[in-house]
Amino acid sequence: MEKQTKRFEDRIWDFFVSLKLGIATLILLSITSIVGTVLKQGQSKGEYVQENFARMFPDGFPPKMTQLDYDKLREGFESTYRFFDSMYFFDMYHSWWFLGLLGLFAMNLICCSINRLPRVLKIVREPELKPAEKFYKTLANRDELLVSGTMAEVEAKVGGFVTSEFTKPSRTEEGEKVHLFAQKAPYARFGVYVTHLSILVILLGAMLGIKFGYKGFVWITEGGSINQVTSREGQGVIPLGFTVQCDQFELEYYEASSMPKEYRSDLVVFENGQEILKKRIVVNDPLTYNGITFYQSSYRPVGGGVYRLSVTPRGGSSFEVEAKEGAHIDLPNGGSFAVSAYEDNLRNFGPGLTMHVNSPDGKHGNPFPIYQYHPGADAQIRKGEFSFDLIGADLAYATGLQVAKDPGVEVVWVGCTLMIFGTMIAFFLSHRRIWVTLVPEGRKVKVLYGGNAHRNQPGFALYFDNFKSKFKKIVS
Amino acid sequence: MDGSQLLSTQIMNLVTVGYFISMVSFIVYLAVRSKKVALVANATAWLGFAAHTFALGYRWYESYQMPGGVGHAPLSNLYESVVFFAWTIILIYILLDIKYKQDAIGAFVIPFAFFGMIGAQLLLNSGISPLVPALQSNWLTYHVITCFLGYAAFAVACGVSIMYLIQAGIEGKKGGDSAGGILPSAKVLDDINYKAIMIGFPLLTLGIVTGAAWANYAWGTYWSWDPKETWSLIVWFIYAAFLHARFTRGWAGKRAAILSIVGFFATIFCYLGVNLVLSGLHSYGS
């Protein structure tokens, strides 16, 4: 009875320790991950149905299609959606089965390391210092010489050669024999374990972030401030514990173009009424306070902008006017004008606004556009009594900031660094060892020597051939 | 904005021609095994690479000569990335050529670079356009360079794996080792395949990590299961499986070569398929 239970435990352990499980998990993770990139994540049933109709009828519904046909198709799409949804395909990276697969992967890594690490530690910490002759027979790279001289003389030559050619050996006496042992980069054997550990550290960091962090979004109007954010993950409203104020938001374009060059927000952090810090943030350069970071993400105009226009009466000289959005500004001829609806990219001509002119008898003129980077256009096109150019716009904006708290992110970076070092060590370094045993034989000394490498054996074999020929010359 | 007037674009056209001559010469070399033909093939590849390097640097300089502060490293759009990718493929080829001196490999690796270049020159817009705020970061440079060096190593591994499958088939019929045939021996090809992936895998890891760091600075999240990010992870999983497969009985040799080829297809889907076919944060299109 006891024998059977042991075998069962052993079989469980063997399963978690097997390399084949590792390869299978990697392949399964690859294939399942593909599903989440093809099926749009977080889609509702309605969105899924819409998308499928759009794909099936890219040019619109055929005129002959009946309501019945439509309903049948819709039901088909809906039942497909329900089927996929039952397997969590629309939120698959947070589904129990995907997380379970990741968990299995982690278990495999842990068990493999526990299984193999003791042996590797032993090789590194307790190297063979008294190799018997049959040990040398197990080495792929070895040789044997019979040289004249005393033990001390030969040892000096051999020790000197190994030190200069490879590295300083350690010395062990065994009766009348003398063993020399030299090794390079023993820590290279740990590269694999560091790499595997790094994956576990990254997973830990990710879990910390998910459990103790949050992702949110917030709009701050210029001049305004907020002290709480809306969660993007359905956790409602989260208080910050401090206040963030936006003094100004600016949008800069590339010269004479509608392409944005920079979005920047001047932010100030207040806590308990005290100003703590000020920062101008741009995309790729956020503000962090108290473990919470604010990222420049988007913006929207909020109306109430002030615009500078150049007004030119026909045949006269131009003058500048400041006009508030929506307000009527008097014109010298008794009429007036009003500006509205500023857009960053009005009809693809770049920043501009729509305005209208009222005649002196109060009649509203038709609205027309003027563009910041197309001066003189209005004079040419409309040929009105006054022509207008948009010189500048001081808009009121609200800045849109992504907000994130992630206590696990530093752990993830530690994991990433470990992974980079681990892979470099695992691939580009090799633990190489050379053994020499000197045995007195009458008036001569028998020299047994050999070596191996844990990586890139063909490369070490070439190195050893070179070592051998030099060794023979020096020692004989 | 059209880039055909740029000197750098005109040099790129010559580079494309150079790689074409090199590719054809390598294929001819497979047939005739003439040292002279191999010399022409290698020389045109090396010269093309030198001109290619100069053109990349010059394009960088040209962007700073344009008004409006649009200067940036030539890594920011589809045209620039394809041209850079071709450059990295030739770079990795040259490094392997110095180490292994197997001229036959050229016939299976130069085509990747050539087809990339001709596709870019004929189908894509080579104009220099300014960077939107999201791309204005040094992380762009680190991320793109490391990713493409990794992709290039995988491209070379794929070419060598195709050679392996052909050679293994030949050796299977003849029986035993076949040194002196058209292609290097299967053993050598298997080794080069492994070495190329050993170079590519840490580079891809760096590429993914720098991408995550950049995403964290720009959007506040180092991983959002975006199709591009997810596909880069899929590629990483496939090559990780490859590296471990070598230790498993029955997975060395032919299966490893197939995994290497599959990995490269996944790499190309990650690079181009995601942008052009799927949607998400990375779909900046052309």
Q: What's the arrangement of secondary structure elements?
A:
The complex is a heterodimer of chains A (476) and B (286).
Chain A (H helix, E strand, L loop, with lengths): L1 H16 L1 H20 L6 H12 L10 H20 L9 H30 L7 H6 L2 E8 L2 H15 L4 E5 L2 E8 L6 H22 L1 E8 L3 E7 L5 E17 L6 E12 L2 E9 L4 E3 L2 E10 L4 E8 L5 E6 L3 E3 L5 E8 L8 E7 L9 E4 L5 H5 L4 E9 L2 E9 L3 H20 L3 E10 L2 E10 L3 H19 L1
Helix pairs in contact in A: 2-5, 3-4, 5-8, 7-11, 8-10
Chain B lengths: L6 H26 L2 H31 L12 H23 L3 H20 L14 H37 L11 H34 L7 H19 L8 H24 L9
Give structural notes.
- In chain A, about 40% of the residues lie in helices and about 35% in strands.
- Chain A has about 475 residues and is of the alpha+beta class.
- Chain A folds into four domains: about 1-115; about 125-185 and about 430-475, YwmB-like (TBP-like); about 210-300 and about 400-420, no CATH class; about 305-395, no CATH class.
- Chain A has an eight-stranded antiparallel sheet. A five-stranded antiparallel sheet of chain A has the order 1-20-19-3-2.
- Chain A starts with a helix and ends with a helix.
- Chain B has about 290 residues and is mostly helical.
- Chain B has a domain at about 130-275.
- Chain B contains eight helices and no strands.
- In chain B, helix 4 (about 105-125) crosses helix 5 (about 140-175), helix 5 runs antiparallel to helix 6 (about 185-220) and helix 5 packs antiparallel against helix 8.
- Chain B starts with 6 loop residues before the first helix and ends in a 9-residue tail after the last helix.
- The model of chain B has no long low-confidence stretch (mean pLDDT about 90).
- At the A-B interface, helix 2, strand 7, strand 10, strand 18 and helix 10 of A face helix 6 and helix 7 of B.
